[in-house]
Design goal:
By secondary structure, the protein is an alpha+beta fold. The protein is built from 14 helices and 10 strands. It has 3 domains: about 90 residues, no CATH class; about 180 residues, Nucleotidyltransferase, domain 5 (2-Layer Sandwich), CATH 3.30.420; about 80 residues.
């Protein structure tokens, strides 16, 4: 039987077309041109797909959303002015903003503008939004506008893990992480320059006020508001820098009286201070502090200071832990930069055993672990304790816990703050801590549910 209704001629090889060069001369034909499937990006496609099917069941974004749904955000909802029966645009759900920043922190996204782009282009962020529109102004304001709430969320989230037994706080380690500030070295000015800048800023404010009074229609309302805001903010920053200057001058004077006149403060970020960084260079920075439970690697305490030294940072963190959880850790691991005698005595009086290395003495023949004549009983006991093999084995956990957490937050983009001021910097560190604990808590729960081999 034939497969066709009519008899077809046998197929023949295609006859190559004669090819000619630019002068019209015949040239030898080459091999046949390949047939290709080329992209057609103007083709309209209708694909039935929902956002929920774009994410795997165990995706980290689902873990973040589950955590956010368990939070009590009633104080955020109470501040929303868009209510039933009142005209106006609907407000963005605070749970969406909370989930966006938590996942963005885990994903290493630290810019509100970048996060705004991802909510329109990236399937994971689109899934979190669920069709809710966002803009970078709302995202930026939400990130730094609720520091007290974030601080309470850190406490409640860790307290939940404490109740579940995932966190014990029997042994806690602390370390500082110096992060570059959002200010340049050239923005630091001495008192004469700051006073001159303040006079210029006040003159600009007055000139703008007179201009607007003489000719209110000189600029549009939006341009007028922008100019007023920019000039006012410049004036406020210089005033803040002058207010911070006495503290810096006092610090310089304690070291050397002649250096008091060399004290400088940034006009970009008055709270920032020049610090020695991990690479040995000096840059404007903040000194963040994390306290980590060694058993679970959960961050239990967060603090930030503009002091470049860790020498006085242990007592405030221990007080913070007691205030948060009504308990102090039994053992506390810190590096040599925290080992101040008074701090060790205060911690021991509170029932905490400190594990910190003893600094090398100038006299190389003296045993560093042997008590010195001026030592108190607590300090003498600390010296002898750190010379034992058991203490050295315990101290190894510091590098494996808090330094590991510091490395994680570095990898999540915490290399330079994009915000300014101690309060906003603290907000960023709290986001890092809560996001880290969400991921760590999920891993701990999976480990508890996994069958024993």
């Amino acid at each position: 039987m034939q497969d066709t209704l009519f008899e077809l001629p046998a197929p023949s090889a295609p006859t190559p077309r004669p090819l000619r060069n630019a002068r019209g001369e015949l040239i030898e034909p080459g091999p046949p041109a390949p047939r290709l499937r080329r992209p057609n990006r103007t083709q309209i496609e209708l694909r039935p797909v929902d956002l929920d099917s774009l994410l795997a069941p165990d995706h980290q974004a689902r873990v973040v959303w589950e955590f956010v749904e368990s939070l009590d955000l009633s104080e955020l909802y109470a501040k929303i002015k868009a209510v039933e029966g009142v005209r106006g645009r609907d407000a963005t759900d605070p749970r969406v903003l909370m989930a966006l920043w938590l996942y963005a922190t885990l994903d290493g996204v630290g810019s509100a503008r970048a996060l705004d782009r991802y909510t329109k282009q990236h399937d994971v962020y689109r899934w979190i939004c669920g069709g809710v529109p966002t803009n970078y102004h709302t995202l930026a304001s939400f990130r730094v506008g609720h520091v007290e709430l974030l601080d309470r969320l850190l406490t409640t989230s860790v307290a939940t893990l404490l109740d579940a037994g995932a966190v014990t706080m029997q042994r806690v380690s602390q370390d500082g992480i110096r992060v570059r500030a959002n200010a340049g070295a050239a923005s630091f000015r001495r008192r004469p320059t700051l006073e001159e800048r303040l006079k210029d800023a006040e003159a600009q404010v007055e000139a703008l006020r007179r201009e607007l009074e003489e000719d209110p229609a000189a600029t549009s309302r939006r341009q007028k508001a922008a100019r007023q805001r920019a000039v006012k903010e410049r004036q406020e920053r210089v005033q803040q820098a002058l207010a911070q200057l006495p503290e810096v001058e006092a610090t310089k004077a304690r070291k050397k009286k002649a250096d008091k006149a060399k004290a400088r403060v940034s006009t970009t970020d008055p709270d920032a201070r020049t610090m020695k960084m991990a690479d040995g260079g000096f840059r404007p920075a903040y000194n963040g502090q994390f306290a980590v439970d060694t058993d679970s690697q959960v961050i239990v305490g967060v603090d930030v200071t503009n002091a470049g030294s860790d020498l006085n940072q242990m007592p405030p963190m221990l007080d913070q832990l007691e205030e948060r959880y009504e308990m102090r850790p039994k053992e506390y691991l810190v590096d040599g930069g925290f080992a101040k005698r008074q701090a060790i005595e205060e911690a021991t009086e509170g029932g905490t055993i400190v594990y910190a290395p003893v600094n090398k003495p100038k006299d190389s023949t003296r045993d560093r672990h042997k008590p010195r004549p001026g030592d108190s009983p607590v300090v003498a006991q600390w010296r002898k304790r750190m010379g034992t093999d058991a203490a050295k084995e315990i101290y190894k956990e510091r590098a494996a816990t808090v330094e590991c957490v510091n490395a994680h937050v570095r990898n999540r983009g915490l290399r330079q703050f994009l915000v300014r001021g101690l309060q906003k910097v603290r907000a960023v560190l709290l986001w890092q801590a809560i996001a880290h604990n969400v991921a760590r808590g999920a891993k701990l729960r999976r480990a508890q549910l996994a069958p024993a081999n």
